Amino acid sequence: MLKVLYGLKNFEGKSKFKTWLYSITYNECITQYRKERRKRRLLDALSLDPLEEASDEKAPRIEEKTGLDRWLVHVNPIDREILVLRFVAELEFQEIADIMHMGLSATKMRYKRALDKLREKFSDTTET
């Protein structure tokens, strides 16, 4: 509703008011849908059970897991958040550093080390 009120001064009358109102409503719905979808993906990625990854006997086998969970179960929770914020939420390193209350260089280093750890872990499993 506020978008309509704020945008009212920009209405030029090139189309019917109803059409203009519909386009604002439609665009806002699409924006909200995209935000919710991104939030859902982020929450799904962060919802791994930390107790499962601490126990070797309960740790899922690589073949049993699919998608992001299969990879992220092998890194610690802080590194997992950095990877999820980078790949799922598509944030820049500075934004991630601000969210995590870390320095930019520390964020980049943890990101690089987490990726290296995953590369090493999964190159070993594919070679055997």
Number of strands: 0
- Number of alpha- plus pi-helical segments: 7
Calculate the mean pLDDT score and round it.
75
* N-to-C SSE string, H for helix and E for strand: HHHHHHH
Unreliably modeled segments: 48-65
Shape: elongated
Sheet bearing the most strands, described? none
Share in helix = over 70%
- Whole-number radius of gyration? 21 Å
**Backbone structural class:** mainly alpha
Beta-strand percentage range = under 5%
Describe this structure in words.
- With 128 residues, the protein is mainly alpha-helical.
- The chain has seven helices and no strands.
- It starts with a helix and ends with a helix.
- The model is unreliable at 48-65 (pLDDT under 50).
- Helices cover 70% and strands 0% of the residues.
Set out the fold topology.
Blueprint: H1 2-7, H2 17-46, H3 50-54, H4 67-72, H5 77-87, H6 93-100, H7 104-127
Helix pairs in contact: 5-7, 6-7
Short description:
With 128 residues, this protein is an all-alpha fold. The chain has helices spanning 2-7, 17-46, 50-54, 67-72, 77-87, 93-100, 104-127. The protein is elongated.
Which features characterize this protein?
mainly alpha
